[in-house]
Write a structure and sequence with these properties.
There is one protein chain. About 70% of the residues lie in helices and about 5% in strands. The protein has six helices and three strands. Strands 1-3-2 form a three-stranded antiparallel sheet. β2 and β3 form a beta hairpin.
Amino acid sequence: MGQIHGLLLISSTPKCTDDIMRELDISREIHINIRALQDWNLVYKVDLDTCRKDYFIAEKDIWKVLVRIIQQRKERELTPLIELADRFKNLENDGLEAKEFASMMSEISMFSHRADQVLQNITSSESSWLMNSFMKLVR
């Protein structure tokens, strides 16, 4: 999926699945991966009047790409982790192992909530603000 997205990201013209398979020398599951990229709003199908094949382009605005990837990863990975850690951090603490488990779940919960806040701030901010903040850190 990453190779397909990368190819479409650097391509100046839309590509059909045959072009993608030939250029990347892949054939397995290309349609599944393109569909997943479309579901993430990273790749779009374009209509070309000259051909009956489906052609695809990638979102070229890197800020939009970053935000969409963060949102998808949060939804698929971070949110379920937060829900699970929150549920288990308040277990009855009978015994040393149970106390250790609850303590670990509490730490994971705290870290996950903070990560969620940071990612929420990133995705709701302007790209120029983030870039300026990042450049200050790098300097």
